[in-house]
Amino acid sequence: MINIRKLEAELWESADLLRQGSKLTSSQYCMPVLALLFLRYAYSRYKLVEAENATSFL
Hints:
Elements: H1 4-21, H2 26-56
């Protein structure tokens, strides 16, 4: 299991790198980042439902 403090530190470090490495403002790069978070959530939900369906059809 991932340590929450470590995850938080890695996310902040990634955000800092994103801000440093681009000329974009936070309002310009927030939508792609939010889209990636949504896709990750959707994938996790899909895998959960897929596993539930696989066991119910057996």
